[in-house]
Every structure is written in structure tokens, then in C-alpha cells.
Design a protein that fits this description.
Helix content: over 70%
Largest sheet: 2 strands, antiparallel
Strand order of the largest sheet: 1-4
Structural class: mainly alpha
Radius of gyration: 22 Å
Number of strands: 4
Amino acid sequence: MSVFLSILLVIAGLIVLIKGADVLVDQSSQIAKRFNVSERIIGLTLVAFGTSFPELSISVIAAINGSDGIAIGNVVGSNIFNIAVVLGIIALVRPIAVSKSMINKDIPMAILTAVALLVLLFDTIFTGAAVNQLSRADALIFLLFFAVFLYYTFYKSDANLNGNVVIPANAGTPKGSAKPISSLSSTHSVQGDSRLRGNKSLIKNIALIILSLAGVLVGAELVVRGAGSIADAFGMSHVLIGLTIVAMGTSLPEITTGIMAVLKGKDDIAIGNVVGSCMFNVLFILGVASLITPITLSVNILIDVILLIALSVFLFFTSRSKGHISRGEGVFFLVVYVAYFIYIIHRG
């Protein structure tokens, strides 16, 4: 495959990925609002998972195709890009307010997730093994953590489901009085029509989600094939391609979603999207990919994972001290990423 055709495949794949993720996020958010789920939970779960589906598709397909470097590099690179660039750009648009729940619960969980990746991935350091590998046992640990994260978010959150209050049928009607039969009949008719329209809308949401997932999978296949060919043509490692081109491309949904969220004053969705994506990328994406086939890391990316942990810790302390991420801190995040990008290009 020629380099030109490979580049076209990557571009076409990214377009399909981003559009598919956009539809997925939009429809998922509509379903969430239908069931009165809080914005913080929407950001941490549905929006985060939706914008991370490109990473999921690429890492799983890459692992199946034997491109382990792209699978791991995509996840680590996307998480670094999400914190340093996505949050950096969003903070430049407008300082991001960070809720206490995000500071005390969600960001620490993201730090723990990055540390778990460090411990489970680098077997040569922690167990003295000959190679660094994510085994199926590691995959089960990741997926167990992911299940705990979901349980913790939905059932142990102080911002749990809103609006789940059952209103008695006779609420607002004086005791001892009754509505006229015609009024009751009219009310039942309106409720029936509303319920029917709601069911049709839900079916449409689900159908669009299925179509968007299919688009994401097709786009991911194109990106993996094109990126692998580019790496081979220029003698570049698959890890480098995963850390740069693929990671940046698959993080575009997080950038657009985050900017739109802060412009609408929905800061919890903006930062929840980034934090939730970081946990989803490691726990679910690498969990599923390495459960399908163990992933062996041929190139050492210890520095990259340590940087991910450092960025997560800095995010925690700056959010805790000020309660928001300022424009100055956004600039700092971006400068760090530029320096990191120069380093990995030089490293090759």
C-alpha cells in the first residue's frame, strides 16, 4: 500500500470515527436525560464512553491484528493528550470549575487507574519477567476495577439519579374531590400519546447508536490499517504512531465535546468527559483488548506512563487548591505536551 493511500485511509477513518462518536454521544445524552441522570454522571460515563469508542475500536482491532504497540500507545497517548491538550484548550476557552465530587472521588480514581496500569504493564520492573505483557489475568483485574468504578459512580454517588420521585396519582387534587370523567379521559389520552411518542423516540435513539457504533468500527479498521502502513513505510515504531497520530485523531471528539460543554456552562460534563475517558481507556479498552489476546509491549513507554500519572496528580492538586482550572494552568498543560511531543519524536 502506498504512503499516499495510507494517509487517505487514516483521514477517511478519522472522519468516520469522529462522526460516529458525535452521533453516539448525542443519542446517549438524550437517553440519559430521558431518565433524569445528573450531568456529572453523564460526563463520567455516557459522554466519556461515547467519545472513547474510537480508542476502543482501534485498540481492540490493533490487538487482534498483532499491532500491540498501536493498541497500548493509543490508550496511553490518548490519556496524556486528554489531560494536557484537551483540558488545556478548554481552560483557554474558559476556566473550568471543578466540583467537590470530582476532586474528592473521580480524579483520585483516575490517578489510581494510571498507577494500576504502571504496575500491571511493567512486569520487567515489578515481577522480574522477561517481557512486559498485559495478560488475561491483568485484563480481568482491569475489568473488575471498571465494574467497581461503574457501581461507585451510579450507586455510591452523592449526585445520583435525579427526578426518581414517584408522584401519587391524586397529587394536586384536593382530598375528597374527584376529577370529572371527561377530564380523566383526556388526561389518559394525552399521557398515552406522550408515552407512544417517547417510545418511538427511544427506539430511534437506540437505532442511531447501533449505526454510529458500526461507523466507529469501520473507521477504526481504516485508521489501524493506514497508520500501520505509514509506520512500516517510514520505519517508525507502532508505539510512536499510537502515541501521536492515532491518539490525537481519536481524541478530537473529547476536544469538541469539551469546548461545547464549557461554552454552555456544563463544566461537570467537560471535565467528567476527560476524567471518565482516561479511566475507560485503561480499565475497559485495555481490559477487553488484552482479554481477547494478551498484549506484549516491545518498546519501553515507562516515561509516558509516569508522565500520565504526574499529569493526573497535578490535575488533582491544582483543582483541590483553587476549585477550578485557570487559563494559566491550561497554558502549562499545553507547554508540557509540546515538550513531550518533541521528546517522543526525537525518541522515535
